[in-house]
Design a protein that fits this description.
By secondary structure, the chain is α+β, with helices and mostly antiparallel strands. Helix content is 49%, strand content 20%. The protein has four domains: 7-47, no CATH class; 59-104 and 216-363, 3-hydroxy-3-methylglutaryl-coenzyme A Reductase, Chain A, domain 2 (Alpha-Beta Complex); 107-210, Alpha-Beta Plaits (2-Layer Sandwich); 368-414, Helicase, Ruva Protein, domain 3, CATH 1.10.8. Strand 1 and strand 2 form a beta hairpin.
Length: 418
């Protein structure tokens, strides 16, 4: 047994030695783990616990995006082939008009949970009589950040029934500026907690933001002209969309295709992709059954109109972004000036990836194009070197045989005989 007690106290080098003993790692394994790219290991060690290395994802650029008449090249960090190419193709097909997008103000929700109330039935009226007092305490805490546009906008209260009895929940609406907002909101909620306890009695449990950011949504729309994409694509997308709206099993994968694009931009910009995924999927089920984040219809000209709306709680400032040299460079390439503008880009990319997926799935099938782009990864995985991958991939696609055995046969043909 390898002793991992006090692992968090060790240096990165000492942790790697413990892992080497535990997993019988080779010198090559250790070298790979220590190659952390642009993120220095000493910095990584301060960001999360028990650091032993960093994981790398390919960073590519989606092109052809025109959003509100502004050109964007969109960095996307993802390992899945075809996502970047699909976004770029769908964006190109939307030209010359491109995407029209908008974003709400960056308002997030924070919640305080009160349990074991001495008088649950009187909690609502008690809240109403002290609402301004609660709001004042919270606002005072955020005063230093008002110069950045941050402000407590309001607070409401609701008595709810749960399996543990009645609980009173306070909902704070807070403008978080260009930050993601989690630390700001949680700090505000903790600062006002003593006043809440004084007013209501009972016991305070959770003081936490909600990732269901219904006040911080972004939306985008685009028109794909019948004269450009063809009638078969338009009819196919409409049928695929109708399938997703009617069936939750299909809708889950439909929305996953949207998040292929959205999350890859979120990762590239150093943002919290888990909160974006949680917010998007919970919003998809917010008003009724789980539904599509996109909508499609055919306009009076016979062209296809696509629309998307989803929560986009992202940041362009903050510790996580500032600690990542890559994220700062990515934001520079993207050229966004605010978190709201970044949200608009996310919406446009999500719509583009959804259109591309539906048009491929409903016509030629997704595997043909996907496997052509995946062929290089197959080649590398089967033993091809980087300078051989393109040639091997081309042959795999031509022969339509992407098996490992075929890669080995191709390599035996193209490599010089010893």
């Amino acid at each position: 047994m390898v002793d991992f007690s006090g692992f968090y106290k060790l240096s990165v080098k000492e942790r790697l030695e413990r892992v080497r003993l535990f997993a019988n790692l080779t010198p090559e394994d250790l070298s790979l783990l220590q190659d952390s790219g642009a993120l220095d290991l000493s910095v990584a060690d301060k960001l999360v616990e028990n650091v032993i290395g960093a994981v790398h994802l390919p960073l590519g650029l989606a092109t052809n995006f025109l959003i509100n008449n502004k050109q964007y090249v969109v960095p996307m960090a993802i390992e899945e082939p075809s996502v970047i190419a699909a976004a770029s193709k769908a964006a190109k097909l939307s030209l010359p008009s491109g995407f029209t997008a908008s974003s709400d103000d960056p308002v997030m929700i924070g919640q305080i949970q009160l349990v074991n109330l001495p008088d649950p039935s009187g909690a609502v009226s008690l809240f109403e009589s002290h609402q301004n007092e609660i709001l004042a305490v919270a606002s005072d805490f955020l005063k230093p950040k008002e110069k950045y546009g941050c402000k407590v906008l309001g607070v409401s209260g609701q008595l709810i029934d749960t399996i543990r009895g009645k609980m009173f929940i306070l909902f704070f609406q807070i403008n978080v500026g260009d930050a993601q907002g989690a630390n700001m909101i949680n700090g505000t909620l903790e600062a006002v907690s003593s006043k809440i306890r004084e007013i209501f009695g009972g016991q305070i449990r959770l003081r936490i933001l909600s990732n269901l950011a219904i006040y911080r949504k972004s939306r985008a729309s685009a028109i794909w002209k019948r004269s450009i994409v063809g009638e078969d694509v338009i009819e196919g997308v409409m049928d695929a969309y109708a399938f997703a709206e009617a069936d939750p099993y299909r809708c889950a994968t439909h929305n996953k295709g949207i998040m292929n694009g959205v999350s890859s931009v979120v990762v590239a910009t150093g943002n919290d992709w888990r909160s974006i995924e949680a917010g998007a999927h919970s919003y998809a089920a917010f008003l009724s059954t789980y539904r599509s984040l996109t909508k499609y219809w055919i306009d009076k000209n016979g062209d296809l109109v696509g629309f998307i709306e989803l929560p986009t709680a992202v940041a362009t400032v903050g510790p996580a972004i500032n600690s990542s040299p890559t994220a700062k460079t990515v934001l520079k390439i993207l050229g966004v000036k605010s978190s709201s503008e970044l949200g608009m880009v996310l919406a446009a990319v999500g719509l583009a990836n959804n259109f591309a997926a539906l048009s491929a799935l409903s016509t030629e099938g997704i595997q043909k194009g996907h496997m052509k782009l995946h062929a290089r990864a197959v080649a590398l995985n089967a033993g091809a070197k980087a300078d051989e991958a393109d040639l091997v991939a081309a042959i795999l696609s031509k022969e339509n045989d992407f098996s490992t055995a075929n890669v080995h046969k191709i390599l035996s043909r193209i490599r010089p005989q010893k």
